[in-house]
Recover the amino acids of this structure.
């Protein structure tokens, strides 16, 4: 570089004097030489640098070192499984569920084509880090867990799967709020005069502000009969309907009409992939909470979950074997329903949501065809 | 001799007059203070008698960034009256005292807690937004009646809303949201001067909780 600029400099030197006689003062021409030399040096370095950069970019475009690995991982898993099943090894057998019928797909991803060891390590490490960072379940419902992106290495952008990247529901008319389902069921049970087990615990600034506004208003209006804890429009409706002894179907229609008309907002976990209110999950959660509040047993985590959309994949690396469950969202599924399906209770929906933050912008943005990772419950 | 007496007495007379005036910073020419009772609690609104008093602290600031602290229009919404200090006092005496109206501080609890107009109730603007799932409870508490899924406001309370002042949109937002929820415009009024104007003329403030 310095040689080149030195070689370039002498021609610049002789070139200057001819200009000298034309331009009047000679001293003015003299300082220009070092400046020209310096400028040349800078330009040469700049061009060389740019050239090297351009070559590097071209090389990246041609060789595609990252795209290669990505395409391999993103290959349809069912196909991988079908191709490798005949040579079943221990890892693949562990997840076969006889009761699941044809719905459960057993796939095997220890094939190097499907997951490079490096990527598997990344996933495994991320999963371990993810599990260690899991907050308690009730905290999870209220506070957004730290931004963890555990499975990004799988690069399973939904569009690479046959179903497509989730079908957006044309009319997502349902308004959601930040109320947790646990608080909702607690408020409904309290409204019914039943033991709720616990006071609503989730942090809800709007509820707190509303409660203090209400107590302020009532000190002036003198209304002392109203409950101290405000209830959402949804909670009021459900309490009313249950007091009237309405059927599940009636409550489903009632809440969906009210939600469609914008009269109520619902907890995000209750929004189904086709944009309805999942009243089944709401009602079953009510029953479950009432049972626990009365000293009954908590829900049992179901074993060997199978059925439509369930998919189990085993990753075997040199050091360990990990199995992952996936679930493809169908119409009518809410995050709450999927949590009940896999964990027996709606309260773990946060696990699924956190593991799929690259697909789900919020728990109510669940769409038909999305392929969600379903993490195992952390050991209690 | 007379001239000398004038020189001495002039300042003395002026001082005496000043002292007398210092004890008398009135609300209006014929009124020293306002006193009213709400649910058995007595409130007195008067002015700071220190004629040398200057506004200090947060409400002495002139130039908050806009946005968000932009100058609000004189009217919050069509049909909603804009009022000033004497109207606020009259509203407290007649409507709030009689149980037919409420003075609402639209600011967030933190700001309300630092001092507010006597007898004002803190209903933060955020609680009146349509995304507050508990909004219905507030509207019912304000006197709306649920008639087959829709709210009837004919018996609802008269509301006067204020916030920090002419540079805050919290009260106008609260008014817009009340109107959107169906609250009748004629039941709403807007004290645009807010806390800053209230303090600027030295009117009584209370720190909620201290008042008992």
């Amino acid at each position: 570089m310095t040689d080149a600029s030195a070689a370039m400099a002498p021609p610049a030197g002789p070139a200057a004097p001819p200009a000298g006689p034309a331009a009047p003062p000679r001293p003015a021409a003299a300082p220009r030489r070092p400046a020209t030399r310096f400028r040349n040096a800078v330009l040469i370095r700049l061009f060389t640098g740019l050239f090297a950069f351009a070559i590097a970019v071209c090389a990246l475009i041609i060789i595609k070192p990252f795209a290669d690995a990505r395409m391999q991982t993103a290959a349809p898993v069912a196909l991988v499984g079908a191709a490798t099943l005949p040579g079943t090894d221990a890892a693949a057998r562990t997840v076969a569920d006889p009761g699941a019928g044809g719905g459960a797909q057993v796939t095997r991803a220890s094939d190097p084509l499907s997951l490079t060891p490096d990527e598997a390590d990344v996933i495994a490490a991320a999963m371990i880090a993810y599990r260690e960072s899991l907050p308690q379940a009730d905290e999870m419902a209220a506070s957004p867990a730290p931004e963890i992106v555990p499975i990004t290495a799988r690069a399973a952008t939904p569009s690479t799967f046959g179903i497509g990247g989730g079908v957006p529901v044309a009319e997502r008319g349902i308004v959601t709020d930040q109320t947790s389902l646990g608080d909702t069921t607690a408020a409904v049970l309290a409204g019914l005069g039943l033991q709720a087990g616990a006071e609503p615990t989730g942090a809800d600034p709007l509820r707190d502000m509303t409660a203090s506004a209400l107590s302020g208003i009532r000190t002036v209006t003198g209304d002392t009969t109203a409950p101290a804890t405000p209830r959402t429009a949804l909670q009021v409706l459900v309490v009313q309907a249950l007091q009237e002894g309405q059927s599940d179907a009636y409550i489903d229609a009632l809440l969906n009409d009210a939600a469609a008309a914008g009269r109520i907002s619902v907890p995000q976990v209750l929004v189904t992939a086709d944009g309805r209110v999942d009243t089944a999950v709401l009602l079953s959660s009510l029953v479950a909470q009432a049972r626990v509040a009365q000293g009954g047993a908590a829900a049992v985590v179901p074993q060997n979950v199978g059925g439509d959309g369930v998919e189990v994949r085993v990753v075997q690396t040199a050091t360990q074997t990990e199995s992952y469950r996936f679930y493809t969202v169908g119409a009518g599924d809410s995050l709450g329903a999927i949590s009940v399906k896999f964990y027996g209770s709606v309260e773990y929906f946060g696990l699924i949501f956190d593991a799929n933050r690259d697909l789900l912008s919020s728990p109510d943005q669940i769409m038909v065809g999305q392929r969600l990772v379903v993490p195992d419950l952390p050991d209690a | 001799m007379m001239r000398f007496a004038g020189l001495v007495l002039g300042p003395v007379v002026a001082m005496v007059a000043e002292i007398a005036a210092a004890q008398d910073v009135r609300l209006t020419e014929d009124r020293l203070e306002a006193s009213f009772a709400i649910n058995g609690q007595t409130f007195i609104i008067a002015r700071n008698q220190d004629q040398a008093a200057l506004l200090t602290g947060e409400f002495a600031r002139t130039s908050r960034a806009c946005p968000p602290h932009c100058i609000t229009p004189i009217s919050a919404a069509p049909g909603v009256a804009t009022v000033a200090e004497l109207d606020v006092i009259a509203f407290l005496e007649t409507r709030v005292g009689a149980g037919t109206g409420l003075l609402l501080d639209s600011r967030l609890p933190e700001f309300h807690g630092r001092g507010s107009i006597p007898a004002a109730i803190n209903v933060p603007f955020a609680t009146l937004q349509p995304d507050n799932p508990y909004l219905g409870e507030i509207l019912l508490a304000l006197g709306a009646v649920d008639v087959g899924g829709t709210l009837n406001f004919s018996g609802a309370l008269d509301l006067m809303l204020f916030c920090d002042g002419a540079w805050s949109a919290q009260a106008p937002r609260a008014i817009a949201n009340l109107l959107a929820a169906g609250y009748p415009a004629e039941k709403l009024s807007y004290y645009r001067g807010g806390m800053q104007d209230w303090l600027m003329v030295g009117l009584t403030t209370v720190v909620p909780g201290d008042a008992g």
Remarks:
- The first strand of chain B starts at residue 34 and ends at 38.
- The CA atoms of residues 34 and 45 of chain B lie 5 Å apart.
- The radius of gyration of chain B is 21 Å.
- The mean pLDDT of chain B is 90.
